[in-house]
Design a protein that fits this description.
By secondary structure, this protein is an alpha+beta fold. The protein has one domain: Electron Transport, Fmn-binding Protein, Chain A (Pnp Oxidase, Chain A, Roll), CATH 2.30.110.10. Helix content is 32%, strand content 29%.
Length: 124
């Protein structure tokens, strides 16, 4: 499995503005969508605020790959969809550390959002 470098993770976490682009069914890239990110260990995750009904999440499930742009890092990624409690608990903690005090934090760590957890795996 490919991994994020320390330099990439440092750059990513200095910036809250991660944009994700996912290929449309015709192969063209969809307009970038702004999403929140969290780090758990050496992995990078995002979640659908609206849970599995989020449009970008549905597109991610369909396409399995996309592109992110954040903190000067441009990276093609593939998507994995972990559902285990341990990973989701770690992602919750990553969100707490990054977004503590935000009124939007509770919806990002509730069960609906946990069901829409996506691991962003860099591709080489």
């Amino acid at each position: 499995m490919s991994a994020w470098t320390k330099e990439e993770l440092d750059a990513i976490f200095k910036d809250d503005n991660l944009y994700i682009s996912i290929p449309n069914e015709d192969g063209s890239m969809h307009k970038p969508t702004w999403i929140w990110i969290a780090q758990a260990g050496e992995n990078l995750y995002c979640r659908g605020y609206a849970g599995t009904s989020a449009r970008w999440y549905q597109s991610a499930k369909r396409a399995g790959e996309g592109h992110i742009s954040v903190g000067g890092v441009e990276k093609d990624v593939r998507f994995e969809f972990p559902t285990d409690k341990e990973t989701n608990d770690q992602v919750d903690e990553g969100y707490r550390q990054k977004y503590e005090g935000s009124p939007y934090l509770p919806p990002m760590i509730n069960e609906r959002a946990r069901q829409a957890t996506v691991r962003l795996v860099p591709t080489d």
